[in-house]
Structure formats: structure tokens, C-alpha cells
Amino acid sequence: MQQFHILYIDYLQDINLISVTIRLILAILLGGMIGLERGSNKHQAGFRTHMLVCMGAALAMLTNQFIYETMSNISDPARLGAQVISGIGFLGVGTILVTGRHKIKGLTTAAGLWASACTGLAIGIGFYSGAIIAGILIFIVLAFLPGIELYFYNRSRMIDLYVETDSIKRVAPMLKFIRSLEVNILETHVSRSEPIAQNGVGVHLSIKLSKNANRENLLEKISNLEGIHLLEEI
Questions:
Q1: What is the Cα 220 distance to its own chain's centre?
Q2: Are residues 222 and 116 in the same domain?
Q3: 228 and 196, same structural domain?
Q4: How far apart are CA 15 and CA 49, in angstroms?
Q5: How far apart are the first and last CA of the chain?
Q6: Domain that residue 191 falls in
Q7: Domain boundary at 97, 122, 151, which?
Q8: Which long-range contacts (CB under 8 A, 24 or more apart) does 175-181 make?
Q9: Cβ neighbour number for residue 3 with a 10 Å cutoff
Q10: Is the dihedral of CA 182, 183, 188, 190 positive or negative?
Q11: Which of 68, 82, 121, 186 is most buried per CB count within 10 Å?
Q12: Domains in the chain: how many in total?
């Protein structure tokens, strides 16, 4: 029985029709599981993109193993995998957006694509246990941890704000008022790019709350200032 088990494992590690089929199907399943969470939340790279990335990475490693075993034992069996890890960065960049308010979106999706590719590489080389465990953990991180992340972010004393006013003259009084609320302004950046109001300006603020400051009250007081058209936490 033990000998049969060893032969079975060896068979799945070799390049043959059954192992190739299992690896590619497993890559599609794990990649699809990761992409399903991204797609259901309307992110740029979703279900099919993650499936293709994971399967493509698995195929790259299968090809590399095939070359090593059947054509040249002196070749590097990890060479194509290294190129996949580097190349997936270009695809990930396409999912990252910097909005007009200097808000960065898509970093998690890009990281998910990269992790999906790494999962595919593990499947392609026959590291089934590592790929399955990693795929499940990636899905858990994407699907269930945002709530925990939001919990701690909402209790952070550091806040980045984007505020739009109807005039540049409103900026100085606004900053003076914010400082009067026992708030430390760490960084200020004024921009005139595409404000809501004509002749208006956008102000990016990095502030640190005092221990006794209330986050919601602070945002409400700033939004109620005269001339404020938009207040958004970024």
C-alpha cells in the first residue's frame, strides 16, 4: 500500500497527460476562486483574469519541467517561473489607478494577481499542497479580512483628507480652524486640478488626531465650514 502511494505521488509529479490535466484544472479552480472575490466587488481584474493568470503561470512551469526532463537536464527548471514573477508586475500595474484626488486604487487587486501567479507556479511544478493552502489563504485574506482592516483604520489617529473649497481664500481660515480643534496638520497640498466649483481648489491634508479627538465630529465640523463643497477621506 505504501509503495502504491509513493508510485501515485511520483506519477503526479511527472509530466504526463493525467498530471498536466490535474495541474491546469487545479490552477483554473484556485485562480477562479481568488478572482471571484475580486470580480464580485467590481475590481478591475476579476474572475477570468485571475483564472488565466494562474493557469498561464502553471503552464509556464509545466513547460519548464518538460524542457528539463525531456530535452536538457542542464537547463534551469525555475527560469520561466522567474520570468513570470517579473512579468506579472506589468499586468498588475494596469490595475492600479491614481485618481485626481491622489487616491490610489487597485493595489490589493495587483497583489492578488501576483499571488495568483505564484500559486500557478507552485501548481505547475507539482507543489500541490503549497498551492492549495496558499490559494485558500489568499481567498480568506481578500474575502474576510477587509472588515478587520477597516476596524483598525477607523480607529487610527492618522487621517488623509481631500477637501474642495470654492476659493483659495478659504484655505487659510480652514487650516486655522482645523488647528483649533487640537489636530496636528502634518502635510498640506493645494491643487487646482478639476475642482467641483469654478475657481475652486482642492486641498490634500494629512492630519493626526489627539487622543481625545472624535473622528466623526471632526469631519462633520470641517464639512460644515462655509465654502466647503466636498470632504472625502482618502
A1: 30
A2: no
A3: yes
A4: 26
A5: 60
A6: 157-233
A7: 151
A8: 177/221, 177/222, 177/225, 178/205, 178/207, 178/222, 181/213, 181/218, 181/221
A9: 7
A10: negative
A11: 121
A12: 2
User: Phi and psi of 133, rounded to 5°?
Assistant: -65, -45
Q: Record the cell numbers describing residue 50, joined without a space.
A: 485571475
Residues 121, 38: one domain?
yes
Last residue within a domain, chosen from 102, 121, 151: 151
DSSP state of 15: -
pLDDT tens, 144-167? 888 888 888 777 788 888 888 888
Q: Do 92 and 137 sit in the same domain of this protein?
A: yes
H/E stretch holding 54 reads helix 47-70
Q: Are 109 and 199 found together in one domain?
A: no
C-alpha cell at 183: 489636530
56-90 pLDDT tens trace: 999 999 998 888 888 766 777 777 888 888 888 77
- pTM score above 0.90: no
C-alpha cell at 53: 493568470
Residue 2 has pLDDT above 60, yes or no: no
**116 and 181 belong to one structural domain:** no
- pLDDT surpassing 90 at residue 36: no
Say what the pLDDT of residue 58 is.
Answer: 94
Helices (H), 71-191: 79-93, 107-124, 128-144, 146-153, 171-180
Q: Which residue has the higher pLDDT, 19 or 13?
A: 19
